Input
Amino acid sequence: MSSLIAACGSSEKNSTSVIDLDREFPSESGGSLINAMTGEPSSLISMIAGESASSAISSNVFNTLLRYDKNLELEGDLVESWQISADQKTIRFILKPDLKWADGKPLSSADVLFTWQSVTDEKTASPYASDFQLVKKATVPDARTFEVTYEQAYAPALDSWAGLQILPKHLLQGQDLHTTSFARNPVGSHYYKLDSWAHGENLKLSRNPNSVRGQAKIDQLVSRIIPDNSAQFLELMADNIDYMGLDPIKYSRIIPARPELQQKLALYKELGNSYTYMGFNLKRKPFNDRNVRLAINYAIDKQEIIDGVYLGLGINIASPYKPGTRWSNPDLQPYPYDPQKARALLKQAGFADNDGDGILERDGKPFSFEIITNQNKEREKSAVLIQRRLKEVGIDVKIRAIEWASFISRFIKTGDFDVVVLGWGLGLDPDQYNIWHSSQQAPGQFNFIGYHNSAVDKLLEQGRLELNPDKRQKIYHEFARVLLEDSPIVYLSAGYGLTAIHKRVKGIDNPAPPAGIGHNSEDWFIPQPLRRNEINQ
Amino acid sequence: MLKYLIKRVLWMIPLLIGISLISFFIMHLAPGDITSNESAFNPKASEESRQKLREMYNLDKPVIVQYALWLQRMTTLDFGKSFASHQKPVFWQTTDKDGNVTKGLIQEALPITLTINLLGLAITLLLAIPLGIVAARKHLGWQDRSITLFNFIGFSIPGFWLSLLLMYWLGVVNNWFPISGLHSLNYETLDTWGKIKDTLSHLFLPVVIPSITGLAGITLFVKNGMLDVLHQDYITTARAKGLAEGKVIYKHALRNALLPLITIVGLSIPGLIGGSVIAETIFAIPGMGKLFYDAVLMRDFPVVMGILTIGSALTLIGNLLADVMYAWADPRVRRGVVRG
Output
């Protein structure tokens, strides 16, 4: 055992307050970082677990073949290099030499093959299997080489290999991944290994001496499970945790108003890979009419939503990609707020207020619809602002917030809705075939708004076949342009991810690079004088 | 008496089956299943994989078949495995072929919730009985009025608000008590005394706050019971005999006044295993309330059914115990039971 932290105890409070936290310190190893998470992972085999709490921990324990660097370009994680064949169907990965699992056993291409076999196995119900089922043939020519061949060129393939955590064959062979105790007692190859897991309380990771990527600076990572956000914040105020995600109110109101918090906490904001939108059920009238969709788009003041709901901590977007990345088309502009234009477009679509009640009608029927959303405060508030703006142009809107599981199975899956306010959290690959392609409309699939545009279909198909990043970029820029023009959804905003980290943690990039502050967490360090009291054993 | 007990216990079996049947169907009335969770909306997650999960957990079968499968397992007291927590056993630990022990979800959560609730109930009773007696004896006096006011405030204050306030005052401003969780991070390194101290300090707020807010009801019960009894003829008789006031109150009055309390305590037995979702969430305690709530949200049917079944069994047992206690405490009831 190296060291453990004393989270309570009154003496530690004073020890850090006399030292200037904003000073520069030389980088050094050691110390513990305590963060808080709202949910407990179900298992640390993230290809089975599927939830974010699981990958938050397991990404410190397991490696992938490829990873994204600071600027969101792919680089090798376990692999030294990779080559794509001339017909773009075969990818050959060469592993780095002398890789080891945390238990000292060698990590070879057989482990990679085993992982691929597991995720695609008939008996495994992995939510992420579909990318890997496209692999027609996987072979291991030697202990450092892993080769996959696809039926046809599949551009998102590389991204998928950046998401599949490689599992040890020697410990998992013959086990059922759904029940194995390995999921709660994993052996990986990354910077950290799991020391202990107190159910419902905390998970402790410590440095893996056999890490395939060298040594991280911080000795121990502790994740405390604290479901309530207010309780997390109290723990942060009391200096019992170092790190937590914030909501806009804490970020821009509460912390700035308290000098004692400002003094010890550093705030970070980074654009996430997600956005909030309002989506129309395109199979229903009048949303099948592009003029109506455009009118609603013009009638909504997106900046008002960003300012009112996110306290300004979001940005206006015009494409379904994270702004500033290569896939986001810089030439596209969001629809401005223009109620005059909205009224004109609605008139063009045949709507008029004949009975003078302030609500437009067409064919004797008032223009009235329901926005449904899940119980998410920000989305509910956005819906309320939309409701008011649409009222101004003569559209009557009702709002309903529904519990998540019911929302999905009763409304989304059955297509029984007018308009949704929802969000998409996306991967880093630009492929959005599952969301926009017209073939993806069956119940349970993701084109539940019923979008059908043959130009988009074609672009999405091309984008999947093209492995050259520059050519791909052109395809997706065009895709985003058509999508914006067609307006099947109204982009509401892309919110910033907000984080507070105690200033004792040094070495964090600010402002955050495209990949976010976490990209170099192995280089974060806690200088000796700033550490909590530690008991050496 | 024995015949009566056997009859009552045997009656529980059809009752439990009925309860479980109704629970099972109501649970399935809510739309969605385990596949409509967070990853249901990840565009990388395919519908085929969700279908596979449904088949794996028999969720593709008609509800009545699912119930039959569940009932079949229950005949061997097998509560099944959770869908949402990597198939941990719902009730009690299992050992796999390599000797790895996986603890059951209820097995882990129940002792925590029981400890908190038993301590809470003890504190409530210890405070409520004396307060109720004082309030009854000094009926309409300043003591009675201040107790009523105190109870009224305790009853009206939202528990979560008081919790957050006290967490801030005792944990952040003054660092006297830990804010959340059950153990300090260095718990394993403490000696036995340190461990006890650590656990007690973590339990302080979660135990005391519900006790204060729950005090009002029981105090009122004791007070009213006491008031009723104090006006009975036999109390006047006891006083007329010249018995000391203490003896009148504690020997003659209290025993009768506490009769309704037995029912209340009996009925609170099932409540002992059901933790408060709000308190457990705020204090980050992995207890039964949070387990049940999360299971409902995740549509983790085996866990929901497991907790409901154990809960209803305990409710029935609690009722029986209350009746038996009643019979023991009150000869009038006893005669009725024996005859019936």
Summary: The mean pLDDT of chain A is 88. Chain A touches chain B through 71 residues (CB under 8 Å). The first helix of chain A runs from residue 11 to 17. DSSP finds 18 helices and 22 strands in chain A.
